[in-house]
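Supplementary Methods S3. Complex input for the adenosine-5'-diphosphate-bound model.
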Amino acid sequence: MSEWESVIGLEIHAQLATKSKIFSGASTAFGAEPNTQACAVDLGLPGVLPVLNREAVSMAIRFGVAIEAEIDHYSVFARKNYFYPDLPKGYQISQYELPIVGRGHVFISPAEGEHKEIGITRAHLEEDAGKSIHDQFPDMSGIDLNRAGTPLLEIVSEPDMRSAKEAVAYARKIHSLVRYLEICDGNMQEGSFRCDANVSIRRRGDDKLGTRTELKNINSFRFLERAINFEIERQIDLLEDGDSVVQETRLYDAERDETRSMRSKEEANDYRYFPDPDLLPVAIRETDIEDIRASLPELPEQKKQRYIEDLGLSDYNAELLTANRETALYFETALAVVPKQCGLLANWILGDLTGALNKAGIEIGASPVTPEMLAQLVVRIADNTISGKIAKEVFEAMWQGEGDVDGIIEARGLKQITDSGAIEALIDEVIANNPDQVEQFRAGKEKVLGFFVGQVMKQSQGKANPGQVNAMLREKLKT
Ligand code: ADP
Ligand code: MG
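Predicted complex, serialized as structure tokens:
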């Protein structure tokens, strides 16, 4: 074990899925022509007044309730002042001392059997800035202000993570949660879900935190893991060479798989935060919070517990099946067809289906094998029409679009042989062809049974019922 311990805290920006902006009526839809969705309020032109979007507040509360946080009944918007071309009004409306969502927590499971609680310091509402475009005009940068004023929930974790793997598990947990709650579409490529990682190291056993750097420009979980690991190594090299870590913001370059310095880290007082005089404080009634609590869907943690207690699934399988909303929906849709085959179904989803999805790089919602088709496959395994091995062939054929389960079994002649007469004929043939092995078995070498089962299965092209073959072989070989 290394003498260094890494410490990681994440700041996650989740774009809230409201139709209009946080302080104006302009649309938040992604992908429009540049600068067609930024109105006078988003640009902060003189004389305009922002009006708070109620839905954004409600979504922030949904999140707060889901992480069992304290919801502040009184919260205030503040101006964070800085200059940047994509922020023409010179300040970002954010929250500072009084955020809507206070301390909460989530549980992560970074590996099978591992559980850890991660603290969430706060979550606050703020508006997004515009975007600078550097790759479209030679010698010039473009500015697209469509994103200006889009509502964001900034979720700040405690520095509770100790490895890149834990950080990824935490980020995935938050990603899953905001999608279960339907407050964010989670699209990382489009920037609707962005993670900044704060990384420091210290000698194992030290209480004091080391100097941290903040990593930006990370747009996938894979890059999050790589960026953090690169940064941990870089900091260890510095300290071991007797240098020190500079507190700064660093940009992750996915192509080179490295981080590089972007700017020195600013302190909060550089921003001259002050309460926004154009906006009233937000007062939230307890009854509003209660109404929102009552309207929450079943959350991943509750779902997981239900899968374990009511369905008898293992902790790990329950964790994987509830890790995202689409997988849970797939599982539950299929389970409605085969309520008694829960374990078998879970294995197929987490095994062959997940493998095929990963290989093809597609999401479960776009799987060519629908939950109904997979359920039908499980029905045919359970009623002994096909063996588990043949089922893999049927699955592959369904994946390739050859039709439904029964159609494929019929067309390819895969029906399991359960007719004892037919199996007996195969067994007799195998016994007749292998007198030496028969001799060995009768002399007490039990292991040879496996050889016979294998031969009979081979003769039947995998279609004989293995249980039946086993039982009948034992009978025959005895005599
Ligand atoms: P800022 O607003 O300047 O970015 P915060 O104090 O709000 O700073 O912290 C931002 C994030 O950095 C939090 O997620 C926090 O857990 C994390 N963090 C703070 N100090 C450290 C540290 N020494 N090492 C790793 N992460 C840290
Ligand atoms: Mg920060």
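The CA atoms of residues 11 and 391 lie 45 Å apart. The first strand starts at residue 4 and ends at 15.
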